[in-house]
Amino acid sequence: MHGIPVNSSFPLACPCRKCKNRKWLTWDIVKQNLFEKGFVEDYYVWAAHGETPNSNGLVYFDQANSSYCNASEVQYDPYKSMLEDAVRNEFPIENQGDFLMNEEPSATSKKMYEMLDMTSQPCFEGCPMTELSAMTKMLNIKTEMNLSEAATDRIAQFVNRFFPTKIPNRPIPNFNKIKRKLSLLGMTSQSIDCCPKGCMIYWKADNELMECKFCGGARYRISKQTKKAIPLAKMEYFPLTPRLQRLYASDTTAEKMRWHKVHHREEGVMRHPSDAKAWIHFDNLHPDFAEDPRNVRLGLCSDGFQPFGQFGQKYSCWPIIVTPYNLPPGTCMKQQFLFLSILVPGPRNPTKGIDVYLQPLIEELKQLWEVGVVTYDAFSRENFNMRAMLLWTISDFPAYAMLSGWSTKGKFACPCCIEFTEAFWLYHSKKHSWFDNHRKFLPSDHPFRFDNENFTKGKSIFYGPPLARDGSYCYDEVSSLMSVTEVGGIEHNKIVGRDIGWKKRSIFWDLPYWKDLLIRHNLDVMHIEKNFFENMFYTILGVPGKSKDHAKGRMDMEQICHRPSMERGGNGKFPKAPFTISSEQMTVLCNWVDSLKFPDGFASRLGRCIEIEKLKVFGMKSHDCHVFMQRLIPIAFREMLPASVWEAITEISLFFRELTRKSITVSDMEKLKADIPIILCKLEKIFPPSFFDPSEHLVVHLPDEALWGGPPQYRWMYRFENFLGSVLKTKIGNKARVEASIREGYLQSEMGTFASYYFPEEVVTKERRVHRLDDGFFINEDASASIFAQKAKAVGARTRRHMNQNESSAVHSYVLLNCVEIQPFREMFINTTGLTTSDEAQLQVNFPLWFYHYVENDTIDHPRWLRALSRFPSPYVTTYQALNINGYKFNTVERSEDRVTCNCGVMVKCTGFDGSRLDYYGLIQEIIQLEYQEYKVLVFKCKWFDPSDRGTQVHPLYNIVDVHMQHVLRTPDCYILASQADQVVYVPYPSAKRKVNRWQSVVQCMPRAFVEKERGEESNEEEEDDEEEPSTFQENEPGISFYIELDFSGAQHIDDLSGLPATSTTPEYMDDALDGAYDNEHANNDNDVVQEDDVECTDDDDV
To answer: Mean pLDDT over all residues of the chain?
Structure first.
């Protein structure tokens, strides 16, 4: 049975004497019939089972299940596996009896067999590509490149011209036919009629209604031409169950869906939501659900976007997205695991009526919780009952009100403080303020509690913060309200909810477990940070219309606070606030922002947001605000604002930086929880009451949510907003039918992505595309020693040059002392010579020659790599201008000068021979490839800044590191291994006092695709990020320890090292012996090396 998987759940034509290929049965029943009745006569070419007269007759077995599988006899077809994975849940083994009752297969089965036939039909005789593989590749190209259907058809027509015409062929059809033929690979969607005003959907019991039961509006309009009834509005629903089932159709994702249960959970450390209290709390309450790790935890996000651009037609499109959290950190929330669930029809914001459109999803979630669905697990190769639960929702603050039912406007806007808020109305500014709302979070004996001068006049605080409310308390509060899906619910809620924060009974309360959750709706850190930054930044800059320091705010401040220095003077004018900068400083700041250069992938070019002539700052995106808030605020205003103001804004900057780490600890979050009230109180002593909007207040609750929910990157909007912009928005081909365009494009994208998993390795897809900062390949075939296990990719031009003896000695000594496998020999040398930790210089000078003689004269047959390493490297080296390694892109100083990015900064965390630790900061002058016979080692030659207090300063409170750009080390020991380098960028301080500030702040970067590994975890996890999904800058750069000389006595005040005389580290009494060893090693190499070769290498050339 050529091409039919053995032991699969596929029905197939039974070739026994009785059935004669007319009945479609399962494999077990076919096998039984053949044993009992025998084969049909004259059935030599198995045409009913995919065999052709030219077939080689090999039988395809299920390699994983068959115990009789012989690798030499197996013909594996990935496209048959793709088809099996796609329809496996359509044909469960338990229903095998159904096939006995019918002579002909169903319509779905016929489609499956048509596709099965296409897997064995080449496009033409001799073509390695089958009809199915050609169509799936064309579909993938169309969806990934966002091609129109017309463009896809033109490409297909062009390709078909190359098909031979003298022999039968199967040309690639047009795109409409491709969609029909591949329909089994895709998922389905449902269009549900709804009221144009958003009152109801015509669903379930209301499906037969012809008019809205709320407003009485018509359901249809009658076409004047066709006289057909056309729905006035439709929502698109994408069933969740089959999409979750497909996660278990592939053994790769099926295995990853168990990760949350099997991974090592380190006490007090949270890298994933499964490490956090909310997850563990739910598992303890529902052990039957937690028992099977394959049960799915979900997150839900809702956000609106403008499909026609900022200046186009006003139209609000509201997708609802669901994502599974079972997956590991490197995979969780990647684009292919963000499932579009609902498209709410525009053009208006659904506001609190979003519950109307959530009904199908909530019904499905209830079914998945209470009953579950039988699903095939490809990893364990068994069926199981898959259940699912919704862990929380994610949204910005306005959408928080839509989903939760709690009003985020007015005095009770804070959903955590609820009725215990102390927000008050500002008479002149005409808004509510959360000024002086944070002293109650301080310790009971904190002096700020009793300060009645710098906060509200004459007010002291003697009470504590509001207690956190559990789900049962909230459920009792909303029990008196009605859902908006009930007739009369809106009117009832207006009366009952008039004096409380709840404005409706959210539909999420229909989920049986909703009250058991610690977090039901997340505060979005992304938007809170952005709003906080914009308010603070524009207030400091005094931007009209955006600053919170204005005349009305000052008038409110006079009534509430006692701040004579900011009150109106005798001339009727308000004096300049101490937290604002002058126009001269504004000019300096704008020029500084325009000149900023960051490493590749760290941040966008902020200079595009500056209009220097008009001194305007505009157009900063969420990520721009994220980087500016966390890394640039302490640098930008250090010399422009008074110390008390700078300290307060620096502390809030560091707060967000610590909060948004990829890996957080309980102790760190507890510390942030204690620190943030103090920080906010310091800001309250500086800024006027009009500054404190809800975003400034909500910050006080973020540490609690981090303790409950884990790292914020799983609970913020960056991934979802990127999905809206880079996926859904690009699918809008027909702007007159926004939702329908998105639906079609998304369903096609699902098909194309699923098919791409089965393409041969040489086929380039979006998921397989090499990241531009990819490290490339291992530069040595033999990586027996760690020093040779470097994975890197060279970029740009390369040259060959000759190293002098001093350079070669210094770099060779460093390589030996930083090779882990050489450490036993180093200890042997120390014990033999009696050196101490104070004899570091002698160790660096004498150990290489001792090691050379030891290996050469030793009777033990050492491995080839050890003998090569004991000898000096070739004096001829290859130098590069750029190198991708460790997830970074490194450039030399020369290459970075004329580029908009700066990739030449480097940092190493060092450990001296005596165990002392010190950080070194420098600039890459040269990227060198050493050659130890056939082995290669990549090193950086750097200009190192003086690590003593004269050249490096660390702020005692905030750990801000500054380096003096002209205090550098004068030492030939200027090399490090490329694999040891972390990347930094040096940012100057803007100053109106001096033209050149030689002190610059160190901003440490992290690899763009960095995923922190757990202790003892293998590095086999998928870590790369898609090019279209830029990973948000976050902290958690792992430190690297190695040995390096900690002697900085040679530091001098110079601009460059190029003019320094070369200094040998070799004593005179060893010069002759060392010269002899050097000459003998490389006596035969001189004729084989070109001294200088200006060969250009492309960006894809590997070292």
So the answer is: 83
